[in-house]
Amino acid sequence: MNEFLQACGYAALVYLLFNYAVTFGSGRPLTDAINPNRRFLPLFAVGLLGGAYSLLLQGSYYTRKTQYELLSALFTRQAAEPQAVGAVSFVVFALAVLLLWGWSWWHLPRDPKTFNPNPKDLFAEYRRALTHYVQWRGGLDYAFLCEVRDGVHTVLADGATDADIARGVSRLPTVGTATFTLDPAKAVGEQKERWKAEGRNIFAGLPGLDELVAPIRQGQNVTVCFDVRYGAFYFEVLERPDADGPAVWLYLFAASLNQHEVSSLTAGRHYYALSQALRHVRGGVTKK
How far, in Å, CA of 241 to CA of 149, rounded? Predict the structure, then answer.
């Protein structure tokens, strides 16, 4: 088993170097490099498996042994050929990469930079980002992107998990279980309308909030978080009108009815990722 353990050791060493290389030593390989580029990990694993097969072919050609004989030497008392050791190292490394891809896909939401800044349908890309972060387990329950043009509020896109909203609304003492059970869908719809109305109210109160923070000389309000008794909701101004341009505003509103996700900062992290994703989509056009 010495050669087999040696091959595994080579793979482990290369994997550590790989983690260091993709992050330039930052110590955050998952969030800084691997998760934003995780869609390439399966292709990388396939390339490693192709390299392993090429080594076995080369070993068979030079030693006149079958590929099975080359691999079986790793588990016998015979001396294994270098090509076999290298091939097994490639296979072990490929399996580690596939496990890393599976773990990232299952446990981490999409990186904001993976959304398309040059979509064919801008509103569909908004919905894709809103739906992804809202439907990801834990965190947000509802979010919408709203444009204010000449005083008229228009919801451009939204995302919701009605099942999570229903569970949260059923716990609100102001709703009551008896009222909720009569028509759950109506209760969920009413809650969404209340959130939209709250977004309009916060927008209307921005001058007062700006006046409140003016003495600290750090600029106007951008993001406001209301940590209420049952969850929290977030409001952020993504774009303000230019001095000489049309009076067009763009703001993002998101809400969570799960106090545990708010206290554990999961809702806040998902909201920040959603905000960054929308800014990335609107940030510029990339040529393809």
Answer: 10
